[in-house]
Q: What sequence folds into this?
């Protein structure tokens, strides 16, 4: 797994190392579903396109919209079999978690990772949902954010891929940096396990080995 604070971060080479030369990427952008399609298209065209970034690095990306698989986990399993990396974008972690639950992605990703058949990567919300719980992340993201077709029930459990919480954008030049400080305080006050990562940082999980990659002085 490759869990980044912001976009690919400063260690994209490690992400591609995990892929072992494979190049098929499924981009999950459901954390952004609260943003109108036209605004998202303008942003990708003029500011930042994750698909273009992946293509420039030699990958073969395509979007994997989990809404198309709500209630269709068998179809999603077939789609996941055709990709080597699932790259999960930032946005609202609670909306993303709903999409993962309603599509069956949450159970399927556990299966694929156990079989070492896929790499899970993501940034911001995409990293946060890999943890055991989203409690504390409600200080950064609105858990009540909804879009048509989404179940209003809040899912507080993360995917459980790591046994600590992740706070992205910590002490970074990012709009959520102040909220990240509040989240860090939440975890510290309760003596809960967490990792706070700055933009540029990434957490790499290979088997039982967990590494925090950072160019910033602590």
A:
């Amino acid at each position: 797994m490759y869990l980044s604070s912001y976009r690919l971060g400063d260690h994209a080479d490690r992400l591609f190392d995990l892929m072992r030369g494979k190049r098929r990427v499924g981009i999950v952008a459901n954390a952004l579903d609260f943003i109108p399609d036209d605004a998202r298209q303008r942003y990708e065209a003029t500011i930042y396109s994750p698909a273009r970034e992946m293509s420039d690095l030699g990958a073969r990306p395509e979007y994997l919209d989990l809404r198309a698989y709500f209630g269709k986990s068998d179809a999603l399993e077939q789609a996941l079999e055709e990709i080597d990396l699932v790259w999960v974008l930032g946005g609202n972690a609670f909306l993303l978690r709903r999409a993962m639950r309603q599509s069956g992605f949450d159970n399927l990703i556990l299966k694929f990772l156990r079989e070492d058949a896929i790499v899970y990567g993501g940034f911001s919300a995409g990293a946060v949902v890999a943890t055991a719980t989203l409690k504390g992340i409600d200080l950064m993201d609105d858990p009540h954010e909804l879009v048509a077709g989404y179940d209003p029930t809040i899912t507080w459990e993360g995917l459980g891929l790591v046994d600590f919480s992740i706070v992205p954008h910590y002490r970074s030049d990012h709009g959520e940096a102040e909220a990240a400080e509040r989240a860090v305080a939440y975890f510290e006050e309760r003596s809960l396990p967490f990792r706070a990562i700055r933009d540029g940082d990434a957490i790499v999980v290979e088997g039982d080995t967990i590494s925090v990659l950072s160019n910033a002085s602590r």
The chain has a mean pLDDT of 96.
